[in-house]
Design a protein that fits this description.
D-Maltodextrin-Binding Protein, domain 2, single chain, 46% helix, 13 helices, transport, 330 residues, 5-stranded mixed β-sheet, C4-dicarboxylate ABC transporter, DctP_fam, signal
């Protein structure tokens, strides 16, 4: 906490320079060549070009500044101005509705997902962040997650006893327990070392995250389960945002809309490309589940919806089900 407070003081001091230059520190935890990393760079380019250099966006990728658990506090303190954390992390702020995105098999396509993130329900969720001193700007896609481990994961029984790395999320903890696995919350930047050292046996990721973090080098098997979604919410310190000149804020809103369209356009292609690279590496056996295997995995995981309904909020779940057309029998 003391170190973070010092960084905050330094950050605020760094913003007291030329009055005509506005600095946005944009911190994230993935590499520049991931969908999120590429979208952050696109936003930087658009924001700086459209403001004529009046705004400078400094992007800090790959946990250069903060790890998972630190970055939200840093944003609230003003040490950074912008983040794009995974949706699961927002639950730590007490806004549990965002953990609904972690529910298994909630979305069967990007189209059903975007009915939520691009619609009234998505705007309602973003508005819930205001009371935390945060302005929600956009949802960015990454992709649909696959399970990986150092043994084949063909049936729910194959997960029994495995230590599975997850990001902090009550829903994801319940998901792993439903499979008989032991959930282990580990920061994203520490996932590869934990897998390499055998501290955990496996994890879940879209192919882009698995490949760009070199996790495929220490995971011998990948099951194309596509069991859940991993996405991000772009957020900004509310006071900083509200204090911006109106014309600058309008330009940045436009830059964010275009960066979001770009992010969500490239996400699937980037994951497909990285999956092909994983296959080509020869280091990881990629298993495509049979219809029967996929159905068994789904049966094992769907009870998580009922277990987590009160935690997330039944009204939110009902709204999500209406938007996506989700039914347990699908």
């Amino acid at each position: 906490m003391a170190a973070l407070a010092l960084l905050t003081a330094l950050a605020l001091a760094g913003c007291s320079g030329a009055h005509d230059e506005i600095v946005i520190k944009f911190s994230h935890v993935v590499t520049p060549d991931t969908p999120k990393g590429m979208a952050a760079e696109r936003f930087r380019q658009l924001a700086e070009a459209r403001t004529g250099g009046r705004v400078k966006v400094r992007v800090y990728p790959n946990s250069q500044l903060y790890k998972d658990k630190e970055e939200l506090e840093a944003l609230q303190l003003g040490a950074v101005q912008m983040l794009a954390p995974s949706l699961a992390k927002i639950g730590a702020l007490g806004v549990r509705e965002f953990e609904a995105f972690d529910l298994p098999y909630l979305f069967d396509s990007y189209a059903s997902l975007h009915k939520v993130t691009d619609g009234p329900l998505g705007r309602r969720l973003l508005a819930r962040l205001e009371s935390r001193g945060i302005r929600g700007l956009a949802f960015w896609d990454n992709g649909f997650k696959d399970f990986s481990a150092n043994r084949p994961l063909r049936t729910p029984a194959d997960f029994k006893g495995l230590k599975m790395r997850i990001q902090g999320s009550t829903v994801l903890e319940e998901q792993m327990r439903a499979l008989g696995a032991q959930p282990q919350v580990i920061a994203f930047s520490e996932a590869y070392p934990a897998l390499a050292a055998g501290v955990v046996d496996g994890t879940e990721n879209p192919p882009s995250n698995l490949y760009t973090q070199n996790m495929h080098r220490v995971q011998r098997h990948l099951t194309r389960s596509q069991h859940g979604y991993l996405g991000y919410v772009v957020i900004v310190n509310k006071k900083f945002w509200d204090d911006l000149p109106r014309d600058v804020r309008t330009i940045l809103e436009g830059a964010m809309r275009d960066a979001t369209a770009y992010a969500n356009r490239i996400a699937k292609d980037e994951n497909d490309k990285d999956l092909a690279l994983i296959r080509a590496s020869g280091l990881t056996v990629v298993h495509e589940p049979t219809p029967a295997e996929r159905a068994a995995l789904r049966r094992a995981l769907l009870p998580v919806h009922a277990t987590m309904a009160d935690y997330i909020g039944r009204d939110v779940l009902d709204a999500l089900y209406r938007e996506t057309g989700f039914t347990a029998g699908r």
